[in-house]
Amino acid sequence: MATSGSTRPVLAVENLSTHFFTRDGVVKAVDGISFEVMPGEVLGLVGESGSGKSITGFSIMGLIDPPGRIVSGSIRLNGEELVGLDDRAMRRFRGRSLAMVFQDPMMTLNPVLRIDTQMMEAVQAHEAVSDKAARARSAEVLAMVGIPSPEERLSAYPHQFSGGMRQRVAIAIALIHRPALIIADEPTTALDVTIQSQILAEMQRLCAESGTALVWITHDLAVVAGLADRVAVMYAGRIAEQGKVDDVLDRPIHPYTHGLIGSVPGARMHGARLAQIPGSTPSLGRLPPGCAFAPRCPRADAACAEHAPSIAAAPDGRAYRCHRPMLIEEVAR
Questions:
Q1: Which of 157, 197, 219, 294 has its CA 20 to 30 A from that of 240?
Q2: What whole-number distance in Å separates Cα of residue 332 and Cα of residue 57?
Q3: What residues does each domain of the chain span?
Q4: Which parts of the chain sit beneath pLDDT 50?
């Protein structure tokens, strides 16, 4: 949880748009989103598949390749602008002050190299230290993420670790330089519940102790409820609603947020049918002219179908995009 007294955000994303230019037209994967993350804070970025969550993370990391590109907006890391930097300039940030943990740890780990080789290379890529110092740092961060006998495990290969242990190694590599920001793209989705809860608790503790800001990308509202300080709900490339996690999950303003919460098992009485959001997410290459959620929204009217809603502010500080927001007394039913 956020513990730093700093008033400057670690990450400031403003009006970010990332589009893909295909033969079938322009795909607006991310379309004008804005958010901030403070030191030590955890922001949950949630939404259905195809909502733009992962592309947001890749955009921040500078990992968008043709036919995609950032077409507008700003991404500032500790005040430094990242949009427009070439790959060589981005390498100054990646690994040292900006790191990413992927859903599949083998996107981080090389299967034919020992763990110590990979971790020591990560250290020495940004710091001129001896092999002995790099190995000691590697063992230290393995211990931080809960890997027993870290000195011995450094000599192992990735295939000698379980899936949960491989993910811990990937997280350790992300933490090796104590970066200002970590982007975590559903890193615990493939793990069993016990291992998932352990990794979530460790990530939360490490962020609180080190001041590292964390953007946790997921479709799992239960994970966000226990991990995040704030949450941003994405739909069709835009942020539908964002605010403090308890406010958003207990009293959602946007009908889409309300629908997501209603579809989570355990949110209703035992034996009751789960509420489902009708229809499916629209193609990002053929978005409707008004609100993208209007064809699926039970509250939509003519204005919703014709005009895209602007960002509005709620009295509690939340931001949302909706012509017909949920009323508190309706949410409480």
A1: 197
A2: 33
A3: 11-97+182-331, 107-176
A4: 4, 267, 328-333
The pLDDT assigned to 266 comes to 65
The Cα 284–Cα 271 span in angstroms is 36
pLDDT score at 329 = 45
**C-alpha span between 258 and 197 (Å, rounded):** 25
| Beta-ladder partners of 75 | 13
| Site of tokens 């793209």 | 185
E strand segments, the chain: 11-22, 25-37, 42-46, 68-77, 80-81, 98-101, 181-185, 213-218, 230-235, 238-244, 311-313, 319-321
* Model pLDDT, residue 107: 84
Q: Count Cβ atoms within 10 A of the Cβ of residue 65 and give its class: 0-12 exposed, 13-18 middle, 19 or more buried.
A: exposed
pLDDT at residue 327, as a whole number: 67
| Class in CATH terms, 11-97+182-331 | alpha beta
Report which residue type is found at 25.
G
Where are the extended beta strands (E) located within 135-254?
181-185, 213-218, 230-235, 238-244
Distance CA 164, CA 134 (A): 24
Q: Which residues contact 69 (CB under 8 A, 6 or more apart)?
A: 18, 19, 21
Q: What is the DSSP letter of 114?
A: -
Q: Buried b / exposed e across 11-46, counting CB within 10 Å, b at 16+?
A: bbbeebbbbbeeeeeebbbbbbbbbbbbbbbbbbbb
Sequence-separated (6 or more) residues with CB below 8 Å from residue 245: 44, 224, 225, 228, 229, 230, 231
Q: Given CA atoms 321, 327, 328, 331 in this order, what sign does their dihedral have?
A: negative
C-alpha torsion sign, points 294, 299, 301, 303? negative
